[in-house]
Structure formats: C-alpha cells, structure tokens
Amino acid sequence: MGPNPLEFASKVFFRMSLTSNRSFKDLIANNELMQDDLKAIIIETSMPKFVWVAELGDKTLFSDGKANGLMIIDATEANIYYNKPLILAAYQNKVITFNDLNGKFECDTLSLSPFSLLIRNLKKIMS
Fold it and tell me: Does the model's pTM come out above 0.85?
C-alpha cells in the first residue's frame, strides 16, 4: 500500500482534465501563484504525451479560481493496478512521486500554497 495524501474525513473537490504534457507543463511554468519548488518537480518529471490532471481543493478555493493540490495520471497507461498510472500527487503538504530506479512511490514533505486553476478546456468563441 502506498502513502495516502488525504487526511481522514476531508472534503475534497476534484476537477479532471485531459491535456498534453507540453501544454500542461507550459501552464505550470506560467502559473504565477504556484511555488517554484513544486513547479520544478512537475516540469522535471517525465510524462507520456497525454495526462489526466486532477486539480484538488475545497469549495472556497475553487470559487476563487484556485486549487491547493493536484494529481497527474498517465492517460496512455492501460494497467490500472498497483497505482501504475499515477505520475505525481501533491496535496496537504505532501508530494508523492514515482521513483523509476526502485519502482516505488516516494512521499516527501513540501509546504504547499494555493495556486491558480490550471486547465481551461473551453474557450469563448462568441463575444
């Protein structure tokens, strides 16, 4: 069993989006509210061409256009067992990454602050 980033009985909102890793990393690099150490971890993480991104937060944060956590999931991985599709999770001052060398998930402490919501799938086409 891997590390669990959610506190007991916490209410968490998820907002899922499918995106290319290039677009996602560009959004991360240009997110002015996201802290630099989390940006570096995400940008340096190897990812497949397409990823699912889950932005996490509570009702108040989402209403303000912010999140305070995220999960990145391999959209191309067919094997859903053993958490294999999980690339990275960051929430409640924890960052979980996959170590390619030993094949295990690692959990590190990282003070996380709210950041701007990342994905904007729908564009306004009419004024």
Answer: no
Three-state DSSP class for residue 63: helix
What one-letter code names the amino acid at 69?
G
Integer Cα distance of 49 and 76 in angstroms: 8
Q: What's the DSSP call for residue 7?
A: P
Cα–Cα distances in angstroms (integers) from residue 34 to residues 8, 90, 98, 109, 118, in the given order: 26, 12, 21, 16, 10
pLDDT by position in tens, the chain (length 127)? 445 555 666 688 889 999 999 999 999 999 999 999 999 999 999 999 999 999 999 889 998 999 999 999 999 987 766 667 889 999 989 999 887 788 788 899 998 999 999 866 544 444 4
